[in-house]
Amino acid sequence: MSHDLYLAAKAAMKSAHAPYSKFPVGAAIRTEDGKVYAGANIEVASYPEGWCAETTALGHYVMGGGGRIVEIAVVAERMAKISPCGGCRQRLAEFAGPSAKLYLCDDTGIAETVTMGDMLPYGFRGDILK
Ligand code: THU
Q1: What is the mean pLDDT of the chain?
Q2: H or E, element range at 7
Q3: Is the beta carbon of 40 within 6 A of some atom in ligand 1?
Q4: Which of 56, 76, 120, 125 qualifies as a FRET site for 96, CA 20 to 30 Å off?
Q5: Nearest CA to 57 among 19, 18, 84?
Q6: What does the pLDDT read at residue 93?
Q7: How many domains is the chain built from?
Q8: 37 alpha carbon to ligand 1 midpoint, in Å?
Q9: pLDDT at position 123
Q10: CA distance linking residue 84 with residue 33, whole number of Å
Q11: 51-104 confidence digits (pLDDT tens)
Q12: 54 is catalytic
C-alpha cells in the first residue's frame, strides 16, 4: 500500500523543474483520510530562490485542506535514499507529528522507513508563538 505513495512521488518527480542542478526530486504526502499531495523541486536562475519537492507537496497539502499526515515519500532520480534537507524537515514538522512515517526511496521503491521524530529530534516548535 505504501508503494503507491512512492509511485506518486516518482510520478511527481517527472514534473521537476531542475535545469540547473539536473537533480529532480519528487515527494508525496498522505493524510489519514487517504488524500495524496505530491510535488517536485522547482529551481530558478537566482539559485537560492528555488525550492524543494517536499515544499511543493506541502503547498498542495495546505491548499487541499490539510489534515493529519501519516506518510511521506521522497525520491530522487540520482540519489538513493534521499533524505529531506534541514529546511524541509522543519517545514514538514510544522504539519506532521513525530510518528508520521517518512519513506526514503530508491529507483525501485521504499528503501528505508524512518519517522519525523527520527528526522528532526529537538526541532524548534512554534507552540509558544500561538
Ligand atoms: N532538493 C529537494 O527537492 N529536496 C531535498 O530534500 C533536497 C534537495 C532539491 C533542491 C534542488 O532543486 C536540488 O534538489 C539540488 O539541491
Answers
A1: 97
A2: helix 3-13
A3: no
A4: 76
A5: 84
A6: 98
A7: 1
A8: 18
A9: 95
A10: 24
A11: 999 999 999 999 999 999 999 999 999 999 999 999 999 999 999 999 999 999
A12: yes
> 1 pLDDT exceeds 90?
no
Residue 130 domain-assigned (yes or no): no
Mean pLDDT of 25-51: 98
- Phi and psi, residue 79, nearest 5°: -150, 120
Report the alpha-carbon distance of residue 47 to residue 23 in Å, rounded: 13
Q: What CATH number did the domain enclosing 100 receive?
A: 3.40.140.10
Q: How far apart are CA 104 and CA 120, in angstroms?
A: 15
Instruction: Give domain status of residue 118, yes or no.
Output: yes
50 assigned to some structural domain? yes
Cβ(81) to ligand 1 under 6 A?
Answer: no
Ligand 1 centroid distance, CA of 39 (Å): 12
- In ligand 1, which atom is closest to the CA atom of 42? 12
Residue 60 lies in a domain: yes
pLDDT value at residue 120: 97
Q: Which domain does 13 fall in, by range? A: 2-125
